[in-house]
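So, who can interpret the following?
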Amino acid sequence: MYSKEICPLSKVSQAEKGSDGLPRKMLVVVILLAVNLLNYMDRFTVAGVLGRLQDYFHMNDKQAGMLQTVFVIFYMCFAPICGYLGDRYNRKFIIIVGMVIWITAVALSTLVGRDHFNIFLLLRGIVGIGEATYATVAPTIIGDMFSGSMRSTALMIFYFAVPVGSGLGFIGGSAISLWSGSWQWGVRFTPLLGMIFFVFIIVVLEEPRRGEAEHAEVEHSTIWEDLKYLMSVKTYVLTTLGFTFVVFCVGAASWWLPQMMTFAYGILHHLDDVPKDEVAHISVIFGVITCSAGIVGIVAGTSLSQAWKEGKWCFRVSPTADPFVCAAGSFLATPLFFITLLVANHSLNFAWALMFVAVTSMCLNWALNMDILMRVIVPNRRASATAIQTLMGHLFGDASSPYIVGFISDTIRGDESSSAAKYFSLQGAMFLPNVVLVLSIACYLWSTLHILYDEHQAKMDMHGQNLLPISEIH
């Protein structure tokens, strides 16, 4: 038997009482955005100072790719644990503990000596533990505060952190390391900012009732029951696969494209050793593209989907718009990314322009993917669903892709050390994630056949009613 916690229609939460209900909720979203932003900045400050790290620790490409892989292995291993806890215990406390782990591990990693690469690797893994607690829990808090189009908008704001944080990580890490003359300060500035928002989390964040925004009946279940339920929701399974394939490509691109563009610059200017200030400049350009394209992609994806669902602009009303927009993003990104890889050694500016549109297309799905999850999964299983999606996305996505691409690149290049050899080896290796991106199109299109049924089933489960015949959904 399940025990049920009822959130009746007549009951209004304290967060909704008074005239400050919505402003306070939006303040919470902004604070959650800021912490998410810092998490993504931290992930990519390392990529922004990757050249300096390789010199400091004497790393080859395979070892450099291992930095991201180890981080994500720890991240994905602890994500299911955090998801289980997030569906059952106080989420504010879970976030606080995670932030303490994250801030401490990043700070300690900047104190490691050049002969202790394994310790640095371990600390980057521990950083993943701290970030896993936040990534699995924070979206479910937003899901419990909002519903409908307001939830879509709040999630869009929250996921601005993906492109903006990634871009600022490249820019900040590269610029600060260049200014300070050491990679350590390029990595160290994110936990310093994190301490400020740690205080805001303690003071401002309030734990909402699970299912509050949808007035849902919340059932307490076992882990096995949760897993059986999640695997039975076809839309969730298919969009998780689609998301994973996109993350595989994005993870490889985020880690290796700045390096590849640096080698392309070396080819164009007949240099085997690109000046450090030019390396920093390329990182800044990549960061700006990531930030701006990501923002445009997330806003465009959410706006297109809402307009399509409501029959605005040139669209006819379609409740299946979310997965269609996700599929369209991957469809556009695939040829653009392929052409970018081909032309970078001929024209950097043309490659940057193509990259902007490709990244924009790949970012159409970031907020929509989570919105789909909220639509088809009941509130008391959303943290677990987010955790498993995170696990899959990282295990078969950006945990493996940087290492796989680095390994293929090393294999292709052999003992060659020229800019041309490094460029063409990375170019060849990057064709793999480009092919994987095609698989995401199929998964998102397949999910359009199931999303209406799964969403209807979730609504019936939340309100304790039996499922109506599928013919009565409309």
Summary: Residues 208 and 243 are 28 Å apart (CA to CA).
